[in-house]
Amino acid sequence: MTRTLDEWLAYQEHVNVRSIELGLDRVREVWQRMGAPAPARRVITVGGTNGKGSTVAMLEGMLAAAGQRVGCYTSPHLLHYRERIRIEGVDASDEALIGSFERIEAARGEIPLTYFEFGTLAALDLFSRAGLDVAVLEVGLGGRLDAVNLVDADVAIITTVDLDHMDWLGPDRDSIGVEKAGIARAGHPAIVGENEPPAGLLGALQRIGAQVERAGIDFTAERLAHGWRWQHRDGTRLNLPAPALEAPVQYANAAAAVAAIHALRGIDAPLATCDLGAMAAAGIRTARVAGRLQSLGGDPALIVDVGHNPQAARALAQWLDAHPGGRVHAVYGALSDKDVGGVISALGERIDHWHLAGLEHDTPRGLSAHVLAGQLALALPEARHDLHDNVGAALDAALRLARPGERVLAFGSCFVAAAVLAESAARKSA
To answer: What's the whole-number average pLDDT of the chain?
Structure first.
């Protein structure tokens, strides 16, 4: 029986009784049965708590500017599953995905795979058939035991390490850093994108034998009156444009991406002849990622962000501080494994009115608005707030309440971002 793409995705949700099951044994066995397809001549693997998607987009732009055939695998998607697998900037088609899922199903036999593992194998399969120069793979969860770690990275990037997915990765930054370090390989560059990484990350990278390059030590990013300067310890200096992506933290993501391309040029002959400055400028100037401080226009202005943990909330707070304006109305929803109190505390009184959206009807992991309200009362007892059954209702209420010159910031989960993007598109087409 031929399945549609939606039918395949529904099927994958039930092949494994666990929605998340870390470990490489099962997925490696299926990959090997498929012939262990290599995704590209070179592989860059991107891990970290936040900043992965933005870094992937910048890498994609840089490599494309050098004439490289690039494939990118990212997750989760916002509006359609096809977004997860891109080849030369084009999302995978339904037909390509269905064909890949059929090949995976034929190879797996009785081996249970998770939804994410199906997608990872599909990306490796489709990339291998496309004759790519470089594959950029985004880690789904952690790193060491994540399915993308099947493939040896020529260059690994760890953007940031902060508290998230603690049930799976450990209780503190050190233990989480050890898990994220697992994507690095002995003798290959490992780019550390934050200035103060945890000792656990650095220790694990040293034990692996990776060639570590650290932000603030091996490469630096200096803001200028116009743009910024990237500099490497080997003397390379580049004056670069401001990132198209809005948040101040995008300078750190851009610096890590440039460091990765700089390192890759040292081991890849075809790239070594390319102009690093031109590559970097093009990727930084053109990179766009849906749901990353994305302005949807209007007055009051509507802004959507996928930020869902305290580190991401601190980045939002930094952006709000750098862009003072009218009152801020938050549309906020969250999942049960997230530090809701930490997110709320990070934003604090920058939010003038909270519109709490229940996500329990979107996913079994979704929190109700009443649970969010309890956390809000603990963190900000005086905060003004309303409760809503879903994101659509919360967004409608926020837009009705907000006045011209004010802002509506929707964030907290990919489910929030997806709902707001879909609603905004529907309103514009109406």
So the answer is: 95
Q: Which domain range does residue 420 map to?
A: 294-429
The enclosing domain of 191 has a CATH number of: 3.40.1190.10
For residue 381, give both structure tokens: 């007892």
Residues 281 and 211 in one domain: yes
Tell me which residue has tokens 């055939």.
69
pTM of the predicted model, to two decimals? Answer: 0.93
Residues 247 and 359 placed together within one structural domain of the fold = no
Q: Which tokens in the block code for residue 404?
A: 């011209």
State the total domains in the chain. Answer: 2
- The per-residue pLDDT for range 345-403, each reduced to its tens digit, is 999 999 999 999 999 999 989 999 999 999 999 999 999 999 999 999 999 999 999 99
Q: Are residues 333 and 364 in the same domain?
A: yes
**Rounded distance between C-alpha atoms, residue 89 and residue 283, angstroms:** 13
Q: For tokens 């598109």, name the residue.
A: 425
